[in-house]
Design a protein that fits this description.
Blueprint: H1 2-12, E1 18-25, E2 28-35, E3 39-45, H2 49-58, E4 63-64, E5 67-71, E6 78-83, E7 93-97, H3 105-118, E8 128-137, H4 138-147, E9 153-159, H5 170-175, H6 185-188
Parallel strand pairs: 3-4, 3-5, 3-7, 7-8, 8-9
Antiparallel strand pairs: 1-2, 5-6
């Protein structure tokens, strides 16, 4: 996941504006470039956490905030349960990290939240939002694009079906909470005698 995220984040950050800067090295001062914009990273909990390290390696001075959104199993609607955006908008561009949108509803909800939060920046400039995911269904890409046509989407693999069967919840796979029975010490051979 980290390797694919690195490639995706590299592409997603390619359009960020750069500016000249001085760089001190062990052999003297040199000219270099740095990102001219302030950047925010918003992983959608929990799966998006697996992509954060790759993104912060690309943009080391980015601010990282968290949105917790899940899809209700009955209504299939996105439910916000956690929001740690700062009170004041302090960035120009925000990267939303959600590794595996299936319907796109959670991604659209995250973008809606960020757009509303970014309204406080107007009239100076509009908050730029970029969506980054590893695998997405065709339906999710279409839904996100229709709801937010101005938001660029960077995706590693578009699955024409409804996401590959057997992949499971990516956050459960990352954090070992997939519901599988945990091995007892006795089964693992770790019994003290």
């Amino acid at each position: 996941m980290k390797e694919v995220s690195t490639f995706l984040c590299y592409e997603a950050t390619a359009s960020l504006k750069l500016e000249a800067c001085d760089v001190k090295t062990c052999v003297g001062d040199e000219k270099g470039q740095k990102i001219a914009e302030r950047v925010g990273i918003v992983p959608v909990l929990r799966g998006g956490l697996g992509m954060v390290e790759s993104m912060t390696e690309m943009v080391s001075n980015a601010q990282v905030w968290h949105l917790g959104i899940y899809r209700d199993k009955t209504s299939l609607l996105p439910i916000e349960y956690y929001n740690k955006l700062p009170k004041k908008v302090t960035v120009h561009t925000v990267f939303v990290l959600d590794p595996m949108p299936i319907s796109g509803a959670t991604a659209v909800a995250a973008i809606d939240i960020l757009k509303a939060w970014g309204e406080s920046m107007k009239p100076q400039r509009e908050l730029a939002i970029v969506f980054v995911c590893i695998v997405a269904s065709t339906a999710a890409i279409q839904f996100i694009s229709e709801a937010h046509p101005q938001v660029p989407i960077h995706v590693g693999l578009v699955d024409a079906a409804s996401i590959m069967p057997g992949m499971g919840d990516i956050a459960d796979r990352l954090f070992g909470t997939d519901g599988a029975e945990l091995m007892t010490d006795e089964q693992d051979g770790m019994v003290d005698e």
